[in-house]
């Protein structure tokens, strides 16, 4: 099997040649809006993105990030969000680079994956600040839901445009709904405000003939059955702090997952080679028996070169060995 065939075998619950990270089998098409917003100088100065959020790119940091104060946030008063929020135009974007990249992907060998960060929850706190945004979900649920309705409509229109321009196999949608300890919002608040809109987004992705892969490298255990109801096809970023075996039982094979290897546990100084290899084997042995599982580090790699070489070597060797020794009936 080539890379595409192998990861799709796992996706369909069929026998693969090996178990490994699905992300190794994708080629990315970058979101033109994201590229436009991310191309700011790495000088620590403030710049506004297409939604008006102030961002800075500090020297030495991996990328730009929001730099919000009570004075520079876009939505200063949730009751006046309609006057304060400006929705980016999607009609005049330059799709040339995205189309060219998409055309160069060998779809027989790889999956074309459109990188689409900044989901509903993330955009809501980018516009208001985290603390105020979280409080507004609780104190002003109607206003927050109305604001997210407009953001969701923009996202669905954009997804249709993405499909028209580049025809991806996968939409790689980002929205971190929690931390390593818990969800940011009470589950019922998430269900009342975010879930209905996220279902519409999922439906749009599927109507356009694409796989919906959702990135959230955090705790999502309390809402995993909701993910299935929404229509999430693949959850990328499954951290080991979730009870993954329990989640696999709850979702009954309806949710493919990528992750399970505890990256921070093995991406450290003063760790032995065997300890790294042991963690990789633990994840494969524990989570692959349920099927539709791609063992990986949720963020993809170890940042320390020596650690990453060992991690990748063990994943390649043991992922293949496990597949050969445990054939799917």
Short description:
With 329 residues, this protein is of the alpha/beta class.
Question: How does this structure look, described?
Answer:
- By secondary structure, this protein is α/β, with parallel strands linked by helices.
- It has one domain (about 5-325): TIM Barrel.
- About 45% of the residues lie in helices and about 15% in strands.
- A 7-stranded parallel beta sheet has the order 1-5-6-7-8-9-10, with helices on both faces. A 3-stranded antiparallel beta sheet has the order 2-3-4, with no helix packed on it.
Helix content: 40-55%
CATH third-level topology: TIM Barrel
Q: CATH top level?
A: Alpha Beta
> What is the number of strand segments?
10
Note the beta-strand portion.
Answer: 5-15%
CATH architecture: Alpha-Beta Barrel
Task: Please tell me what the overall shape is.
Answer: globular
Strand order of the largest sheet: 1-5-6-7-8-9-10
Mean pLDDT: 96
What's the end-to-end separation, in Å? 18 Å
- Return the structural class: alpha/beta
Gyration radius (Cα, Å) is: 20 Å
Helix/strand order: HEHEEEHHEHHHEHHEHEHEHHEH
Specify the number of helices. 14
Biggest sheet overview = 7 strands, parallel
Chart the SSEs and their pairings.
Layout: H1 3-11, E1 26-30, H2 32-38, E2 47-48, E3 54-56, E4 65-66, H3 81-84, H4 96-104, E5 111-116, H5 120-128, H6 130-139, H7 141-166, E6 170-174, H8 187-193, H9 195-207, E7 211-215, H10 224-230, E8 234-238, H11 244-251, E9 256-260, H12 263-266, H13 273-287, E10 293-296, H14 305-325
